[in-house]
Every structure is written in structure tokens, then in C-alpha cells.
Specification:
alpha/beta; 6-stranded mixed β-sheet; binds zinc ion
Length: 356
Amino acid sequence: MTDETAPEVWERISDTGIRVMRIPTPFQVGRVNTYLLEDEPLTLIDSGPNSGKALDELERQLDALGHRIEDLDLVIITHQHIDHLGLVDIVAHRSGAEVAALDLLAPFVENFGADAERDDEEAAALMLRHGISEEVVSALRQVTGSFRAWGSKAKVTRPLKDGEVLELRDRRLEVQHRPGHSPSDTLFWDEGRRILIAADHLIKHISSNPLISRPLDGSSERTQALVAYLESLKRTRVLPAEIVLSGHGEPITDHVSLIDERFALHQRRAEKLYRLIAEQPRTGHELAQALWGDVAVTQAFLTLSEVIGHVDLLVNAGYVREVEDGDVVRYEATSDTPADQLGDLIPGGNPVLSRG
Ligand SMILES: [Zn+2]
């Protein structure tokens, strides 16, 4: 974990009636942050995964704050990942709380099992196309199939529109759809207090993975997750936020410089990939291996998503193209521009470089 959060920051957060509860997950990311808004309605943001251990922890931590699950009036889902939404149904049943989520996300949450299965099918096809072996793909499908038990369906009773304001007694939260890490990433912006609840859109100690996912509108075209993510980050960058509360790790108090670091990281990674592609045409899997070596089966889709996201930047800028080669696709360079002369690859321009 990176540097600790100053006590004044925690004080400011709790003074506004926000309490963080860190719920264990079985995943590599570790604990997930859920937030309790001591307001009216009494609101829980995210729930932790669907496990007895997570439920026990949630109850214990609520109890330590003087509340019970039964007291909750509203549960908000920030995005579609199971470490965030797994317990929502149980919590809503026990409390009778309303369940709020982005309107585009509601069908996914309500059909959780079936939609997640379709996601896995498309992910498998994508992995094969980008050169990952059948053994790895089928091993990963078994793992993700069993992971699915940590998620759950839930009925969304309060669909949220992008841009609408959720009014609580003591605060107004603007709903901001900022896709990228997942297609449903939803931020909650308290302009009065300059606090942004951002879930996995921005995390202090790790760069959020732009995971490739099926579009929520049911269209079959693959979305460019990293491109969408960088566009979303730009919109967050201009918010005058003083504290950003993430889905994992510590609060962020300098989101502009953190976002600038992310832009620099993605630019460097795209240049590195370009260098590898310019050496010789390679599949997405070969590129992932060149960057990270042999990774655990559970990381195969994640690293492929990273590669494809960055190669999208190069394809969009005209430096690389996809070439079909039997059942797989390879990337090849279309120019002999040196990697350090590719220029700014951040869609719409890196705000740091264009500052003038
Ligand atoms: Zn997530």
C-alpha cells in the first residue's frame, strides 16, 4: 500500500457523514471499500462479494458504527463487478432498501448469471482470436464460472440517469457515467463538498484495468475500453474534487496529478507495444507475454485487455493495423516512425502536453 492518509482527510470524510467499510474479497485486489452515508435515506454504496465472510464483516462493521443491515434504506451499485455488487440482493432483502444503479446497468444486474455467462463466451472468443491457447481459455472459463458465485442478481428499483442528481437530506450527488474500467462505471459527485465517490474508476495504488466487456446496450461491436477510459478520466480531471473515494485502497487528495501519471503510463505502454510490433508482427497474446511474461491463468484476460486497449490507441492513430492470419489476428506496423516520435496518443490530446 502507498502512503498513509493524513488524519485530517479521514476527519473531513467522517465529518461529512461518510464511513468506509473495507470488506474482504477472495480476489487478488484484496478488500473492497464500501461506503456508508449516514444521511437520510441511510445509504450503502457497494456491498462486497456474495460470501458469508463478507456478510459477517459488513454486519460487524455496520454494528461498530451503530447501524444494522436492517436499517439501510438505499443501496447504490457503482459498477458491474462482483466484488462490488455480490451482496446487494441479500442486503436489499433483509432491509427492504431500494437498489439504485445506472439505468444502463439495471438489466445486467437483474440478469446477472446469464449476462455474465455471455460475457465469458465473448471473452473466450476474443482470447482465442488473439492467440491465447485453448487450454488456457478453457481453464480460465472454469475459474470465472466459479467466481460467478461471488456475484448475484438483484432487482434495481431506482434506475439512475447519467447527469441526474440524487438528493439525500444532507447532500446532492450528481450521477456521472464514466465508462472504461467497466462499461457501467458510475461516479457520484458531491459538488458542495468537493468529494467524488469514484469506485474503480480511479485507484491510488494501482492503475484501473480497462477490461474489455460486452457493451451494455447489447450491440455486438467491441468497445475500445482504454479509449473510453481515457476520455472518462479527462472529464474527471477537470472536476474541482478535493477528495476522491475509491473502490480499493486509500482516498485520493490530488486526483489531477494521479490522472496525469496515468496518462503518462498509458502513453509509455503504447510506445513500448509499438516498438514490439515494429520489430515483428505479433498477436495480442505474444505482446502480453513480451510485456509481462507467463502470467497466471486468472490474469490472462486482464493482460490481454491491457494490450488490446493500448494497441487500439496505435490503430486509431494509424501506426498499426490488424491482419488476419488463419484463426488469429496479428498486429503489424504501418509506418517506420520511431516509437519516440509517435506523438501524443491520448485520445483528444493529453491535457498536460497541450497546456502550452
Ligand atoms: Zn471493478
